[in-house]
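User: Hi! I'm a student and our assignment asks us to look at how structure tokens line up with a sequence. Could you show me two examples?

Assistant: Happy to help. In each example below, the sequence comes first and the structure tokens follow. Example one:
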Amino acid sequence: MLQGVKPFLYRTAENFWNNIVNVGVHPAMPYIESRRTKLLNLLALPCIPFMFFFSLLNYSQERYLLAVLNVITATSCILVLIFHKYRKYLSARLALLCISVLVYTFTGVYFHNGAEYFLLSILFVVILIYDNKWVVGSVSVLIITAFMLIVFMPQSWYLAPPVPPERVWINVATSLIFLVVSLSFFKHIQSDYQKEIEQQRQTLVSMNKDKEKLFSIVAHDIRSPLATLEGLLDMFQRGQYPREDMEEAAAILYKKVSQLGATLDNVLRWSTRSMKGIQTRPDDFLLAPVVTEVLHFFDLIIQQKQITISLQIPVSTTLYADRDQVSVILRNLFSNALKFSYPGGTVEMTAVITDDEVLIIVTDHGMGMSPQQMRGLFTSQQHPGYGTGGERGTGLGLLLCQEFALQNGGMIEVDSIPENGTSFTVHFKKGEYTAGDNAAFN
């Protein structure tokens, strides 16, 4: 029974202490201000029982004035907590500063009880919690003057009966402990602040990397339609379209411009969603509509290179992943397959469903890769080559594919033979689908 009571009492006491120390601290506060508020709470809290104890002791020894001053000091510490609770931080600091300086100066001069060392503690606290140099300078002059007055005042002249020497020792030791606590907490503040700065730096580095990825996605998604438009306009300029075919070519051109507009809309929508960094938001969705969008994106290139597309994707194939990121992966893999396929070749896309995974396989029968090229595929050291039609890549697409696959709990495998083609296999989590049938999507 006692084994269960002790942890409960310990947790209760710890929660009570944390609640008191964090009075007035709220999430919207600046970091330094929250730590300064916590420092004042930390100094005021133990001072309350300490001063009430000595007020009772002084009262029992008939030092009534000193007992009253002890109660006033304890009250000022209580006021600090109350003002902090109602977020009157300036009032809390003024109450502690003014009352403490007056009381400790008076008791030091009047009783010679070592109160001048408490003045030094107050001076350190003022330096730590105030940024205004005029406030710090003025209070410093005031406290140093009071300290020197007490120290150099003739010790043989007393305005009241002196307190016992052991009381002076306790006061001096306590004031020095307050100094140690203040400086230690300030050092802790600085350490936490440095950690906070480092975390923010790491966040900025991560966001910059995400920004670079977004730029590469934008460039990749826009470059292909622009290259197609450029090719069509070049053919117009060279007069390779007969007059009777101009209407058909204009329709193709209109289709590509519309496609480019849709691509820009998708990229802008995703960029808006990723303003604070690329975020993976998995959900269940059908694979077939995404494949349709990808094929529509490359339809003119497919026609120009006369590529045959072979699809074996069950209509009910469902993934649990981020739809936009899967779309980026498929566009990159399909773009590479078209780029390195010979004119008149075949590109295959197959979905294989297992118990808990969906494997998407994109295969071409084109240029293939050497073992050395494969080793550098998913690194920044890769050297993108030219496609069969002179197309040039950036080398960033496969890096993005790998990262997006990992973020969605999957991975990418590659198999390639020079001059025999390349096959990429992407593993995704299987999603839930309750409607439809298992007919093939061709």
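Example two works the same way, sequence first and then tokens:
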Amino acid sequence: MIIRLYQDVKVTRPKTQSDEQVLEAALRLIHEHGPEALTFERLAKSCGLSGATLVQRFGNKARLKQRTLLHAWDGLDDKTRTLATAVPRTPAGAIELLVALSQGYGGIESYAQGLLVLREDLRDPMLRARGAAWKTTLCNALAACFAGTPGSPQDIGLLMASHWQGSLLWWSFDPTIEVTIYVDNSLIRFVAAITTAAARKP
């Protein structure tokens, strides 16, 4: 946490901030105000470093935005791997994993801001590649949770991840309950349908 000390109209700035700390501050700006809010001026006020120092480190606004979103992907990758290791290798564990990932979406305003961030990801080939790699990691983790479920579809990981993303979108149109409750209920019905169909196979 960055502490600012105000004395008269002068601000005591920290002399050093790691790139990770700066990128965390940049990510907060994006999530709170949208990608276009990320400027060197606003980031300087947020993290306490001078604009000149930030330009020296990150070069230009486009590079700063890319570095920030790559940092966000790093965090999501770490969270996904940690959750995948912690949940049981069962269909219920797959639900637990996706519900836990849904906690980061917050309320509808936060989700809407997240869609603006997704637009930035889709515009950048490097960021799209990170998204594709995360999809593979997530789908493999979900599929591992169905390894002991006879008859489950070969692409169950992708099917469940796709259902999860769809449930988030449908929730956003009518966010009358918490997103995690909505997702949990939706995924429970999905898994019940899959396992029932698998049990009926001859």
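Here is something you could point out in your write-up. The longest helix spans residues 61-86.
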